[in-house]
TrEMBL record:
Transcription among keywords: no
Binding partners and assembly: Monomer. Homodimer.
GO biological processes: cell chemotaxis; defense response to bacterium; defense response to Gram-negative bacterium; defense response to Gram-positive bacterium; defense response to symbiont
One Gene Ontology molecular-function label: CCR6 chemokine receptor binding
InterPro entries named among the record's database cross-references: Beta/alpha-defensin_C (IPR006080), Defensin_beta-like (IPR001855)
Pfam families to which the protein is assigned, alphabetical: Defensin_beta
Localization of this protein: Secreted
Top-rank taxon, per record: Eukaryota
Domain Beta/alpha-defensin C-terminal residues, every copy: 31-61
Keywords tagged on the record: Antibiotic, Antimicrobial, Defensin, Disulfide bond, Secreted, Signal
Protein's recorded name: Beta/alpha-defensin C-terminal domain-containing protein
Length: 64
């Protein structure tokens, strides 16, 4: 049983989202202030995903 607790703790650590992967952009105001656009679904061509605009279905996209 102790092995299961160890396994769950390792899974929890490895499956946690990494800080800084999508930056600190979590709402439309900070997205637009950074010179990006809010786009539903995937980012258009030549745009990079840098965060989300409120909900995870709307992405914050910026030209690199």
């Amino acid at each position: 049983m102790k092995v299961l607790y160890l396994l769950f703790s390792f899974l929890f650590i490895f499956l946690m989202p990494l800080p800084g992967v999508f930056g600190d952009i979590r709402n439309p105001v900070t997205c637009l202030r950074s010179g990006a656009i809010c786009h539903p679904g995937f980012c258009p061509r030549r745009y990079k995903h840098i965060g989300v605009c409120g909900v995870s279905a709307i992405k914050c996209c910026k030209k690199p």
